[in-house]
Design goal:
By secondary structure, the chain is an alpha+beta fold. It has two domains: 25-159; 161-225. Helices cover 44% and strands 26% of the residues. It has four helices and five strands. Strands 3-2-1-4-5 form a five-stranded antiparallel β-sheet. It starts with a helix and ends with a helix.
């Protein structure tokens, strides 16, 4: 039973980690190579990886999507550490509207213009920081969605994920507050109720033992006769 609880808790933790890793903003240092537009089919289960900005697009089986081709500095440990090596990364540029995740992005056209203005070559590079969410998976043809871009002086810029730090700090404080409320509720309501139930059970058990003793003594008196 203990092993089963560990497995369930591990699965829940893994699912929560996946949801947060997909949803929370990430920052990549990139050099924009090109931009293009391509029609994407949305008639299978991978539609969940594409934005749903309005009711009209929800009924379409395909639509035009803008993409951003970049050369990105490789990272590890969820992007907290960056290396000197480069890799190719392609982002999509879609409005999120009022749907999930709650980035409330409505400026796809403006963002595409900013991206076009930052295009450069390896001989004369222009570096930028792309803020995005989502995953890149070549097998499923999924792309992270760029929600912002800003130019930086060079590829060695230090990026501090303030939003993610504030988010996890808020979660930690909220969990601590909920835990304190639960402990107070347990001490004031549950533990006294359990003590009362235990005392009542002990009283019932004592009366049962007393009645059993009386019955045994009565039967014993008949045996002696």
């Amino acid at each position: 039973m203990r092993r089963f609880r560990i497995i369930i808790r591990s699965l829940i933790a893994l699912i929560l980690f996946g949801v947060l890793h997909y949803t929370l903003p990430q920052h990549d240092v990139v050099r924009v190579v090109n931009t293009y537009q391509e029609r994407q089919d949305l008639d299978d289960w991978t539609r969940v990886f594409w934005s749903k900005p309005d009711d009209q697009s929800a009924g379409l089986i395909n639509r035009d999507v803008q993409f951003v081709q970049t050369v990105k500095k490789k990272t590890y440990l969820l992007g907290f550490f960056r290396t000197d090596a480069d890799e190719v990364m392609v982002y999509r540029n879609e409005d999120t509207g009022w749907s999930w995740p709650p980035y409330f992005k409505f400026d796809t056209a403006s963002l595409q213009t900013e991206v076009d203005d930052l295009r450069s070559t390896s001989e004369e590079p222009k570096w930028a920081v792309v803020t995005h969410y989502g995953w890149r998976n070549e097998l499923l043809s999924t792309f992270p969605n760029a929600v912002g871009i800003r130019p930086v002086a060079g590829p060695d810029v230090t990026i501090i994920p303030w939003f993610n730090i504030a988010f996890f700090l808020f979660v930690a404080i909220a969990l601590g507050f909920i835990r304190a409320l639960w402990r107070q509720f347990r001490e004031r309501s549950i533990d006294p109720a359990l003590e009362d139930a235990s005392e009542a059970w002990e009283a019932v058990d004592a009366r049962a033992d007393e009645a059993k003793g009386r019955m045994s003594r009565w039967l014993g008196s008949w045996r002696r006769k």
